[in-house]
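Milestone 3.1: sequence recovery, worked example.
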């Protein structure tokens, strides 16, 4: 499989994409997870979607076929999109920007995920400028090819990269000096990350399927990174069910969506 960088959306085939900034144009966000898809449609300039659709994948169904049915329904085809993005919750790894060489994208990724060499995936990369790192991630080939037939220059993003970059932007404005560990739920378990003043200190996904295991890995990582249970802050993103148990061990705990 070939590596692919992120490119801006300019045009489409089945569904029209226009660069004109008009009142009746929209932004389409396709979210890909292990158990299905979500489609979000935003009016130009809005930060909250005015329409959302869950697209489950039935047993025996092909994911790319299920997504194609959803994307080509009449309602979506009637709208004009200024921007289309696909955000993928998939295996990722990262390297410092200064060490990144495009021709080594696949080799570096497969060092981390050798079993995916046998899978039908394309390895993509995205630069995270606030963190000065490059995120490498895999996208299912059939899925990517189908979406690109509808939107040839769809913007590709890793879900983890989006979370990291968004947090880096917000924490740049925060003058607090306490260390912070972020815990997010994702489709394969939990994603834990820690930023430093200028860059990324730690980021790891743990495959868990119950709160007890999630609690273990949060405390394991907290201890491994030498966080202080009384002074440092743990932030739970959309994971409120961990708060009560985690509060027995950590004094500073914050929950947010």
């Amino acid at each position: 499989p070939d590596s692919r960088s992120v490119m801006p959306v300019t045009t489409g085939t089945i569904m029209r994409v226009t660069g004109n900034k008009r009142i009746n144009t929209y932004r389409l966000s396709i979210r890909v997870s292990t158990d299905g898809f979500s489609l979000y449609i935003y009016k130009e300039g809005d930060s909250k979607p005015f329409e959302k659709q869950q697209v489950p994948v039935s047993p025996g169904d092909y994911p790319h076929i299920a997504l194609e049915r959803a994307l080509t329904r009449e309602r979506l085809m009637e709208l004009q999109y200024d921007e289309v993005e696909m955000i993928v919750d998939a295996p990722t790894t990262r390297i410092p920007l200064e060490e990144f060489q495009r021709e080594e994208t696949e080799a570096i990724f497969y060092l981390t995920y050798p079993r995916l060499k046998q899978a039908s995936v394309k390895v993509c990369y995205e630069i995270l400028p606030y963190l000065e790192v490059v995120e490498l991630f895999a996208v299912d080939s059939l899925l990517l090819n189908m979406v690109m037939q509808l939107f040839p220059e769809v913007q590709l993003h890793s879900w983890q990269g989006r979370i990291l970059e968004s947090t880096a932007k917000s924490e740049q404005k925060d003058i607090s000096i306490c260390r912070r560990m972020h815990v997010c739920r994702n489709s394969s378990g939990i994603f834990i990350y820690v930023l430093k003043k200028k860059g990324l200190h730690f980021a790891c996904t743990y495959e868990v399927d119950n709160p007890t295991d999630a609690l273990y890995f949060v405390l394991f990582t907290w201890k491994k990174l030498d966080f202080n249970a009384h002074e440092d802050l743990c932030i739970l993103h959309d994971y409120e069910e961990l708060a009560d148990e985690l509060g027995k061990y950590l004094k500073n705990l914050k929950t947010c969506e």
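The first helix runs from residue 63 to 71. The chain has a mean pLDDT of 86.
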